Amino acid sequence: MDETRRPQLGPGPEFDLIRSMTSSARAPGDARVRIGPGDDAAVLRPREGEDIVVSCDMSVEDVHFRRAWLTWEEVGWRSVAAALSDLAAMGARPLGALIAAALAPELGTEVADSLAAGAGNCLREYDCPLVGGDLSRSTGPAVIDVTVLGSASNPISRAGALPGDELWVTGDLGAAALAAAAWERQLEPDVRARHRFAHPEPRCAEVEWLRTRMDIHAAIDLSDGLAGDARHMATASEARLLIEAEAIPLHAALEEFSDREVAVRIALTGGEDYELLLAAAPGAGDGTRREFESRFDIPLTRVGRVEPGDDVVLLLADGAVGPMPSGAYDHFETRRS
Amino acid sequence: MDETRRPQLGPGPEFDLIRSMTSSARAPGDARVRIGPGDDAAVLRPREGEDIVVSCDMSVEDVHFRRAWLTWEEVGWRSVAAALSDLAAMGARPLGALIAAALAPELGTEVADSLAAGAGNCLREYDCPLVGGDLSRSTGPAVIDVTVLGSASNPISRAGALPGDELWVTGDLGAAALAAAAWERQLEPDVRARHRFAHPEPRCAEVEWLRTRMDIHAAIDLSDGLAGDARHMATASEARLLIEAEAIPLHAALEEFSDREVAVRIALTGGEDYELLLAAAPGAGDGTRREFESRFDIPLTRVGRVEPGDDVVLLLADGAVGPMPSGAYDHFETRRS
Questions:
Q1: Helix, coil or strand: residue B68
Q2: Which residue pairs from B333-337 have beta carbons closer than 8 angstroms and sit at least 24 positions apart in sequence?
Q3: At what angle do helices B191-198 and B175-184 cross, to 10 degrees?
Q4: Cβ B54–A149 below 8 Å, yes or no?
């Protein structure tokens, strides 16, 4: 009946955390939110005729991040950004978020406040009201689970890629993986790479803009790495995805590798980029690309095409077609789960 | 880049867990689910004109339950039931659930399967499709976060209680707290009390039925205990809630206490009952109560009334009005957080 009981609600730390995030993330009179935090549940009003898109993303200390790598504010941002990236991949606009966190009491209110500030900053940046949450004590590592709801009149699945489609990638790849690899080797990562790991930017506005100019058949966010996520799209779409190694947009921090092949493997297998892979009807021209790059200040790159089949292959510079790398990448002499 | 990286998606344990729960919890062709688990996000179709109701509930091992107390199947049921109870309190019908879990690898697949089976049983019992989830390794205690979405054309808030309303409670109270107290004293709990702790039954159907016969102004689920939850309703409604001590429906397991006052205190402060406290316009008669009890096989009890004010008071048998007990309850010589 003591510490194994549910912490009392009321004016305790749970409410402080939620209030802290709410005040920074929710405009009063938001038409999307009929009842916000503080009731048994939140009540959201979907846009008329639109579907509800929902996803959750759990971040566990020492599994998805380490305390020595990130500030708690960055942990908060990253946890929310990872969840919002799933909405971007569906072409959905944010409707509301719920954040559940389990924190060891010895972390204190300063950590909870920092976490809330980072989460709140990301929610505000992406105009996503915080509508609920749950804060619990824990005897173990910090756990943050973010659930996001969005709405879309015509959500994009990962299953719609068609033979003949072109494959596009937003942004550049590999930097987050490079930072994680440096940390694992007890090195200080390149500052640009570190920023990409700590501060991913879900491509919500980008996909919304692109949908008005391209006929996007399928989308997936690059959380596992281009190789793995392309495989997910291929499987779901029952199609072959052919990726051109030379076309893969590499982050500038990967220029430290004189061997482009090494850099490409990091970009393919590294993950954590939270960029988007899109399959779109062919024909989107250089005009769209240039306008996109000028508007969003990130590259938009055609990286391959969709063919009949059911796998993922890599087209090498010499025109040979090889299997997509996967699993352990031993350049850093590390293991993957 | 090794164990701190996101576990690969694909045909791994995450998909097994989700598939296991999905297969037990989701009927194919469910009109509510346009895209189920396996995409970046799920897509749900709300009922036309209805609002979305959403809540999350996190269960942490050694905080909300102990491994020695419950089977993993019971942990799964209880985690889902606690979240669905929030939908019941809003008068919402389940639309979909997402389950995120962090489990230590040494627990093995048998534990994950049991957890999934219990969660799946509860989802199926309440006709709530599983639409997403996230499974992570963890180095610490098991953490399960359940997010539930429901829909309602006119959700019930906890903020609507009006002076003159009658207060009603579904079911009987105190058994779950009694079980927890026994465990804390290293005793085997009463088998009926244990069942109520391990297998709470959200009152979804009950509230839906009652709404057609009573004008329910406010509702809250009894997770903290009647005293605390009545206080939440009073604060949100800006009203005084007067609870009659003699009227509180006590679970039969509390008959072990010869002193009714002790049993009442357990029922008031114990929590974990997941029954509902309702504030309804006066006049619902004995006919409604009898029909309810016959249909649902649980009591429906008028426990008090709403008055002008902003607090919660206890009306004692001798007609005196006393403050509501709160905080530490020292009969079991235990501490509360």
A1: coil
A2: B334/A1, B334/A2, B334/B181, B334/B184, B335/A2, B335/A3, B336/A1, B336/A2, B336/A5, B336/A8, B337/A2, B337/A3, B337/A5, B337/A7, B337/A8, B337/A137
A3: 100
A4: yes
Q: Give the domain A14-152 fold.
A: 60s Ribosomal Protein L30; Chain: A; (3.30.1330)
Q: Does B9 touch chain A (CB under 8 A)?
A: yes
Dist. CA A197–CA A78, nearest whole Å: 8
Would you mind telling me the total number of residues written for chain B in this entry?
337
Which pLDDT band holds residue A22 (cuts at 50, 70, 90)? low
pLDDT of A28 reads 60
Let me know how long chain A is. Answer: 337
Beta carbons of A112 and A103 less than 8 angstroms apart: yes
The model carries a pTM of 0.90
Instruction: Considering chain B, tell me which residue range(s) the CATH 3.90.650.10 domain(s) occupy.
Output: 166-332
Phi, psi of A294 (to 5 degrees): -70, -35
Would the CB atoms of B40 and A8 count as touching at under 8 Å?
no
Rounded CA-CA distance B303/B249 in Å is 8
State ipTM: 0.89
Helix (H) or strand (E) holding A287: helix A286-296
Return residue ranges of chain A for CATH 3.30.1330.10: 14-152
CATH class, B166-332 region: alpha beta
Q: Determine whether the interchain pair B102/A8 forms a contact, defined as Cβ–Cβ distance below 8 Å.
A: no
